[in-house]
Amino acid sequence: MDMNGQDQRRFEVTTRHVDNYRYQSQAHENGVNHGEPFNSDEPLPVGESSAPATPALLGSALGHCLSAALLEALRKARLNVTESVTETVVKVSPNEDGNPRIDEVDIVIKPTLEELHPRKDQCAAVFENYCTVTSSVKRGINVNVSVEWVDGS
Fold first, then answer.
1. Where are the beta strands (DSSP E) in the chain?
2. pTM
3. Is 58 helix (H, G, I), strand (E, B) or coil?
4. Cα 73 versus chain centre, distance
5. How far is CA 80 from the centre of its chain?
6. Which phi and psi (to 5°) does residue 115 adopt?
7. pLDDT for 126-151, tens place per residue?
């Protein structure tokens, strides 16, 4: 993530209760909205599963950040990515007190490269260092990351 010439960036989210366990959030920075509002909900049986649950939203943030970091590394290496699909699994289990907690997150990034060049391995070795979200989350949750290369030729 680029710091945009700032010492600190503040990404803010305003979350409003809609009904039952459904919420609507709006992301913004310095008063400028980032995208459209998005919904979240608790899964059945508590909520209605009408929108992603919070563990899925965390998984989405991790998958997006890692995918973007790998894409940036590949572009800097002048490797053409024609498609990329990322699969994320967030595993939740009861802790010793019986409360659900995220145990770990498994992420598989599947970039399709126009040509499988050896420079891809150097990109795979360093890209995680540039993922702001995953580097932060790994301090408390086990995040397993792998890259499965797809030859697009």
1. 12-19, 22-29, 32-40, 81-94, 100-113, 142-147, 150-151
2. 0.87
3. helix
4. 17
5. 22
6. -145, 135
7. 999 999 999 999 999 889 999 999 98
